[in-house]
Design goal:
Layout (H helix, E strand, L loop, with lengths): L1 E2 L5 E2 L2 E4 L5 H18 L18 E7 L2 E12 L2 E9 L6 H15 L4 E7 L3 H9 L3 E2 L12 E7 L18
């Protein structure tokens, strides 16, 4: 059990999932529809679901009472930096997003990431505000977003992971 800071208790169970699995696909379809409503596109231009099953990648699905309610993936961007992609929590469920991101960050640290980055669009003000509230800060745009004027890139350092990845070098954040 955790709290989202507003007093709403959240009891979620998180599972590493195949990003192409049934539960993940259902949540991602909802995400795509939501983004079309907000931005006019589904946000999949820079997403390859296979990245979540490659070295350092993972995809989490959160369950409440056995029902899938939220998801997010991390792919290796470079060495000790992971990129968070496809974050979604069903509406009207206070605390799911906060709990999801805490689980993503904990899992990322455990597999050796020291920093997470993500990208939002300026038109998605609610998401940008959410990420700021949970400790992400705007950073320099990283590839492939450098020339995309409405891209907002954000980052958050993580506590040291419990194991160190063999292929990492110190301070190898993208720049």
């Amino acid at each position: 059990m955790g709290s989202d800071g507003s007093g709403a208790e959240v009891g979620l169970v998180f599972a590493v999932s195949d990003g192409n699995g049934r539960d993940a696909r259902a949540l991602l379809e909802e995400l795509n529809e939501t983004l079309i409503g907000i931005l006019g596109h589904n946000g999949t231009a820079h997403v390859c679901m296979d990245d979540f099953s490659r070295d350092g990648g993972f995809f989490l699905v959160g369950y409440d009472g056995g029902n899938p309610v939220c998801c997010a993936g991390v792919r290796m961007l470079s060495g000790q930096t992971g990129e968070v992609k496809r974050v979604f929590a069903r509406r009207n469920h206070q605390g799911y997003g906060t709990a999801l991101m805490a689980a993503v960050e904990a899992h990322a640290a455990a597999v050796g990431y020291r920093c997470l980055v993500l990208e939002c669009r300026e038109g998605n003000a609610a998401a940008i505000g959410f990420y700021r509230r949970i400790g992400y800060a705007v950073c320099e745009k990283y590839p492939p977003y450098g020339d995309e004027k409405d891209a907002v890139c954000m980052e958050k350092p993580l506590l040291c992971g419990t194991k160190r990845r063999k292929d990492t070098q110190p301070d190898d954040r993208p720049g």
